[in-house]
Amino acid sequence: MAKDANGNELKDGDNVTLIKDLKVKGAGSTLKRGTMARNIRLSDNDKEVECRIDKMGVIVLKTEFLKKA
To answer: What is the overall mean pLDDT for the chain?
Structure first.
């Protein structure tokens, strides 16, 4: 069961926001705190989710940096 930084359970299709600025390897850019990630998909690993971010596409983020919107 995947949980966000506050301990809330995450489900497929949830929207989340970043709680910390994150550097994206290979993209040469930084995702700012408060950025909305839409329509997450849970992966086999409970500590990671796939999500879509505007102007970035689909990326994998660790749940410890996410807060349920």
So the answer is: 92
